[in-house]
Amino acid sequence: MKTTAGPRPDQNWLRAFMFTIFGTTALIISYFPLYYKELGFSSTQIGYLYAVGPLISMFSNMIWSIVSDKYRTIKKIMIALIGSQLLLLLIMTQASRFGAVFLIISLFYFFYYPVYPLADTMAIQTARRYGRSFTVIRVFGSLGYALFALVIGYVISLSGADWALGIGIVIGSAAFLISLLLRDGVVQRTGGMEMSDLLKVLRSKEIVWFFICVFCLALGHRMNEAFLTLTLSQLGAGEGLIGWSLMLSAASEIPIFFLLSKYGDKIKELPLLGFASLMYALRFLLMGLAADPIAVLAVQSLHSVTFGVFYVTAVRYITRLVPGRYQATGMALFTVFWSSASGLLSGTFGGALFENAGRPTFYYIATALAFLAFLGFLGRHLFAKPEDHYADSLS
Fold first, then answer.
1. I want to staple 20 with a disulfide (CB 3.0 to 4.6 A). Which of 175, 177, 261, 381 is the partner?
2. 3-state DSSP helix/strand/coil percent for the chain, to nearest 5?
3. pLDDT band at residue 253, thresholds of 50, 70 and 90?
4. In degrees to the nearest 10, what's the CA dihedral of 66, 67, 72, 77?
5. Which pLDDT score is estimated for 391?
6. Across the chain, how many H-helices and E-strands are there?
7. Whole-angstrom Cα distance, residue 333 to residue 344?
8. What is the pLDDT of residues 182-196, one digit of tens each?
């Protein structure tokens, strides 16, 4: 049921929530390594602290999203997740030994990663309630990431990396208060959650093919994400330029999100996914050829037509293929392929590849993976036979 008139406080609170939780993302991805370094941890220990995140998210995303679909609530789970994050950050202020920090951050990741697929699911449902595109809500996540990346960097440059946890507690407190004001997702009221039906959906050829292509593309994306700052450092970039690079990539998503919210539905998903994959291949090729940090900064602007186009279109594709009552689980599975499994594999083998084969070869392999995804999406669009989808019969 769509509502097109009247006040929309639920949409505005969800936008504020998206804006805030991506501030936590900016902090953890970009500035927690500085905090770990401040504690005296070695590079190897810092690597362990990051490798455990994708590993835990592979099952935590699925656990919490299945619970959400089963009990037909997102808001209550979101409150529990944000509250648990906040509690663990408070506990972590008292930890300084590697073993204790490793245990606490592992528990933190269990509650941290599932927030994002659940927030996207809530954005999809809220946008559908008002007959709008989910990108008009999701774009506030990009705005939050871009702004927080700069502001947190400024605060830490003045006060030191030991302020990272304090900043995280402030952001977490704001996110928790906002979560109390969210409106729960629109849920399917007919039929229960049958695991046999869910398995039929996930075994459909189109979804299996989609996740295979996503995984190929995600490997290249996560390789670049994990080693972008190292690439910039090797090319002589300072910390300021690295911060601007992160901000530029996040800000470049915003106009694409608005364009896709207005015109994206007029273009079929698979050609758009193929286009994004081809642009990814170009982006990684240019990264392999880049010889100075300014060139890398210019290449970062392609984040708009790579991640921006891909993510919005992929979410749209999943909502078409997966029935409404299973969408939280569908988004969680997408996150497992796009972020968790690919992050674990790219972090494990990407470091050895970067160190032993060199930066150009590292990015040329990422280029090949993106091009393989392009061929997969394009091939599915051109040659797949029409077939009935379980999403249509089960929704």
1. 175
2. 85, 0, 15
3. confident
4. -120
5. 46
6. 19, 0
7. 15
8. 988 655 444 555 566
Query: pLDDT by residue (tens digit) across 320-349?
Result: 888 767 777 778 788 888 887 777 777 667
Give the C-alpha separation, 133 to 316, whole Å: 9
Which residue in the block uniquely carries the two structure tokens 């990272």?
A: 164
* Sole residue written with tokens 């998206």: 18
Can you tell me the distance from the alpha carbon of 286 to that of 278, in angstroms, rounded to the nearest whole number? 13
Helices 98-112 + 75-92 axis angle, to 10 = 170
Above 80 in pLDDT, residue 212?
A: yes
* Angle at alpha carbon of residue 258, lines to 308 and 182, rounded to 5°: 90
Give the whole-angstrom CA distance, residue 62 versus residue 46. 26
Q: What is the pLDDT of residue 390?
A: 44
**CA-CA distance, 24 to 229, in Å (whole number)?**
19
How far apart CA 295 and CA 300 sit, in angstroms, is 9
Asked if 151 and 378 count as a contact pair (C-beta separation under 8 A), the reply is: no
The secondary structure of 300-347 as a DSSP string is HTTHIIIIIHHHHHHHHHHHHHS-GGGHHHHHHHHHIIIIIIHHHHHH
How far is the C-alpha of 177 from the C-alpha of 369, rounded, in Å?
42
d(CA 115, CA 117): 6
**Residue keyed to tokens 């709008």:** 132
Supply 148's token pair: 């927080």
How does residue 1 score in pLDDT terms, banded at 50, 70 and 90?
Answer: very low
Would the pLDDT of 249 be above 90? no
Minimum mean pLDDT among 16-30, 72-86, 214-228, 326-340: which range? 326-340
CA atoms within 13 A on the CB side of 133: 20
Q: DSSP letter string over 261-298? A: HHHGGGS-HHHHHHHHHHHHHHHHHHHHH--SHHHHHH
Residues in the chain: 395
pTM of the model: 0.78
Q: What is the dihedral of CA 150, 155, 225, 239, to 10 degrees?
A: 90
Residue type, 211: F
Instruction: Return the biggest CA–CA distance within the chain.
Output: 60
pLDDT for res 388:
44
